[in-house]
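Quick start: what a row looks like.
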Amino acid sequence: MSRTRWFTLLALITASLTLGLIVFGAVVRVTDSGLGCKNTWPLCNGTIIPPLDNVTAWIEWLHRLFALLIGAFGMVTLGVAIAAYRRRNRPVITATAIAAVLFFVQSTLGAIVVVMDLPPTFVTLHLGTAMLLLAALLTAALFSMHKPARIYKPDRFTALAYITAALSLVIILTGALVRGSGATLACTTWPLCNGSVLPVEQGQWALIHMFHRLAVGALGITVVILVWLAFASRSERGVRQLAVLAGATYFAQAGVGAMFVLSSAAPAWGALHVLFAALTWAALVTVCVVEAINTRQVQTQEATWQPQSSPALN
């Protein structure tokens, strides 16, 4: 197998592991295992391996071990990227290097979250950085493998793809803020918040929760329009399928989010909610990168060296 194919495979594996880490992080949160190792990091309560009878400590410790595994895969992926693309397709190296930096930042934020007793702001930043890490790895993989069938100019579908992806990240961050601030069950009914569209009289936690729901509703509108535009303005089957996938995962995460509230924050629904939110984000990022390549906003073709012509001899 060539180095370029090895890179694509490694980047996709590392991206998949990162998705797993994000879901594992959600399990840590919904099982209240964030302080399973108390305020110690990288050790767990002063030991390398936690006691066998401490379930929350094991959940937190395995989450850290999972992150370490991703770090190892990430370093290998970066090394292969440099070996395979140092003289061609520079966007691959750039995206992979950004992923390496984001992994370091994400790990640092994870340590801060533990040491500082899970402050909501840092919990939100921790999840947001993990999502950006997932996006960087997917971007690197797509730069290495996607060859456009045809080139076209950016249009309203391209612009809406970027807007929708950005909005989905904002919604993920507000969702983390809802969980981290303790506002998960500030609204116990769905879709209204305890019978109100805008629960001003119910306090700030209800407002934070309802703001998240309204943002999710706005995302739903943009996703539906994105799918419609994909079929109206794109003949490429892959772009249409990606748009449909984004729509399917969006509606799945919205439904699971409703079940999370109606089940009084059952852990399984909470983990699934994060999973489908991450899948929606990943699908939208993929649409954006494919559009960037197809519209030549990112040049991924290998540079061809051509010798200068010799001056004509008189």
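That is the whole record. Residues 55-85 form the longest helix (31 residues). The helical segments are 3-30, 55-85, 90-115, 120-145, 156-180, 204-233, 237-262, 267-294.
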